[in-house]
Amino acid sequence: MSIDPASVDLTAPFGSGTLPNPVTTASGCAGYGRELAKFLPLAELGSITTKTIMPYPRSGRATPRMAETPSGMLNGIGLQGSGIEHFVEHELPWLAERGARVLVSIAGERVEEFAECARALNGQPGVVGLEVNISCPNVDNRGLVFAANPATSHDVVAAVREVADPALPVYAKLTPDVTSVTDVAMACVRAGADGLSMINTLLGVVIDTDTLRPHLAPSGGTASGGLSGPAIRPVAVRCVYEVHAAMRAGQFASVPILGMGGIRTGRDALEFVLAGASGVAVGTAIFNDPTAPLRVLDELREALAVRGFAKLTDAVGLAHHH
Amino acid sequence: MAHPVQRQAEIVELSPVGAYHRLVLQAEGIAERVLPGHFAALAVDRADGSLLLRRPFFIHRADPAAETIEIVLAEVGPGTRALARQRVGDTVDVVAPLGTSYSVPTAPASALLVGVGYGGSPLFGLADRIVEQGGSVGFILGASTAERLFGVEHAKALTPDVLVTTDDGTFGIRGQVTLPLTEAMRAIEARVVYASGPRSMLRAVAEVCSRESVRCFTAVEETMACGVGVCMTCVLPVVGDDGESRFVRSCVDGPCFDGSRVRWDDIGSVPADLEGAAAMGGL
């Protein structure tokens, strides 16, 4: 039943179109691509997802920003970045020249700031889609993240979909820190999302038992950070599984899912595919191995071949077919 | 900054040196690119192990002919303990060389090199470079206690101007490296000071240098998740060439910084003028 890995068709559904293969980088784990390009040719990935970009430069949180945890890490960077203008002028042309397909992660503190980023990306080279990072504090709602409830998630996605180039798929990136990720997914799809990225980090706190204080520098009254890495993988697979099941059951329109959360190997990626993802993102594993995205792609191809899958799409959601 | 490569490096030597371990790694294409102040990021666990983050270590020596690099490590946590438990012949996943090296004077100059503990390890390659260029060096090496000193004999082989301090007085002058600093700078007419070690020491050295109007370069040891510039965890508030302060990455814009540019007092906070400062543009 095993087939030649080279013959596996890795073409991955992406929005209403496709990408040459399903692997991308998870936002915030690959910067804007320059550093990773020293270790792997960016054009060989299905796409590269950028660090989240906001309309304006942002300094981010104070240090310490990170704590290592069992099979993972906690981070609180605070969306440090140079802003959309700098990105469009200095980073995007560089990425486009290298043939990278860029999924641009955007965020704002108000609904219109998301739209502002989306507008600035219309007609720009290299951009294949937008990923809306709705896990950003909403200044108009006590700093609660937009992703925390279906209504605010809907508002952001609708605003972005309205102004973005219709040819560009808009993905909503969902947080698992909600009562029902399916409800938020449904709201995003109904707002026009062409795909769903799952999952963002989980909120966590690490206490330093030497200083007797939270390990991450407090920011905006919180000591929490985002937990990522293999430790969260079952949570991520659960979210993908649940949302794919809801789409199969016809609760809302089916859109491609980009699965992420603790992917370190091709086997891990296959887990997400079987749960219903037609694309996968490698994140924290990059910190351990800068070539991880390309390695995961090769291992996924191998894992599909060994199981006799001639096409990636034959495996998508297969865990539900019982 | 450096152009790093990733290699499965073989351990050719792992031996105790005082309270530390000397680790010599063999891998092609690394040693010839190393400049003083560059570092290496080592994976510390198996490919499926639970410790994901690489540990950064200054490169103590690089031997292009033998294609080896040498680092010095202290057992401070589970990651460094795991490294110290490796055997000769084992392989370690290494990314190196990384970072921005020390700025070395282009004309012959007298330089004072200040190191605390194994943090002083990058100063020796730097000393060789300065001497090669016709300059001269002096050292102040310090530690909390005698067994945590590093490189005292090595320094003495390079120059007669070596001062040693220990906090507890078990070796050399009782006190910290900053105690004899001003006097030592004047004694060797230092035009530049290079420091490497804990942040509190770097800050104190930078302060003395500013008072004495002597240039000062500091190599920082910040915690980092990736070492290659993507994670944004190792940032420090640093004043750029344009006079603007930004959170810049210790791993690519550092670890070697002009000590007068680092806003030591503001580390751990977000100073008002940094709110909204551009980030990834570097210095």
Automatic annotation (TrEMBL), chain A:
DNA-binding found in the keyword field: no
Recorded metabolic or biological pathway in which this protein acts: Pyrimidine metabolism; UMP biosynthesis via de novo pathway
Subcellular location: Cytoplasm
Active-site feature positions: 136 (nucleophile)
Chain ranges of the Dihydroorotate dehydrogenase catalytic domain: 18-304
Required cofactor(s): FMN
Residues that hold FMN according to the record: 27, 51-52, 133, 173, 199, 229, 261-262, 283-284
Residues binding substrate: 51, 75-79, 133, 200-201
Domain of life: Bacteria
Catalytic reaction annotation: (S)-dihydroorotate + A = orotate + AH2
A molecular-function term among this protein's GO annotations: dihydroorotate dehydrogenase activity
Gene Ontology annotations for the cellular component aspect, listed alphabetically: cytoplasm
KW Flavoprotein (keyword) present: yes
Annotated GO biological process: 'de novo' pyrimidine nucleobase biosynthetic process; 'de novo' UMP biosynthetic process
Cofactor, free-text remark: Binds 1 FMN per subunit.
UniProt keywords, alphabetically: Cytoplasm, Flavoprotein, FMN, Oxidoreductase, Pyrimidine biosynthesis
Primary location class: cytoplasm
EC number from the UniProt entry: 1.3.-.-
Task of the protein: Catalyzes the conversion of dihydroorotate to orotate.
Similarity field: Belongs to the dihydroorotate dehydrogenase family. Type 1 subfamily.
Record-linked HAMAP family: DHO_dh_type1
This protein's name: Dihydroorotate dehydrogenase
Automatic annotation (TrEMBL), chain B:
Cofactor: binding comment: Binds 1 [2Fe-2S] cluster per subunit.
Binding positions for [2Fe-2S] cluster per the UniProt entry: 226, 231, 234, 251
Family per similarity comment: Belongs to the PyrK family.
UniProt binding sites for FAD: 79-80
Domain FAD-binding FR-type, chain residue ranges per copy: 4-104
InterPro entries given in the database record: Cyt_c3_hydrogenase_gsu (IPR012165), Dihydroorotate_DH_ele_sf (IPR037117), Dihydroorotate_DH_Fe-S-bd (IPR019480), FAD-bd_FR_type (IPR017927), FNR_nucleotide-bd (IPR039261), PyrK_electron_transfer (IPR050353), Riboflavin_synthase-like_b-brl (IPR017938)
Pfam families the record matches: DHODB_Fe-S_bind (PF10418)
Record CDD domains: DHOD_e_trans
Entries under PROSITE patterns matching the protein: FAD_FR (PS51384)
Domain of life from the UniProt record: Bacteria
Name assigned to this protein: Dihydroorotate dehydrogenase electron transfer subunit
Molecular function as annotated in GO: 2 iron, 2 sulfur cluster binding; flavin adenine dinucleotide binding; metal ion binding; oxidoreductase activity
Keywords: 2Fe-2S, Electron transport, FAD, Flavoprotein, Iron, Iron-sulfur, Metal-binding, Transport
Cofactor requirement: [2Fe-2S] cluster; FAD
GO biological process: pyrimidine nucleotide biosynthetic process
Higher taxonomy: Bacteria, Bacillati, Actinomycetota, Actinomycetes, Kitasatosporales
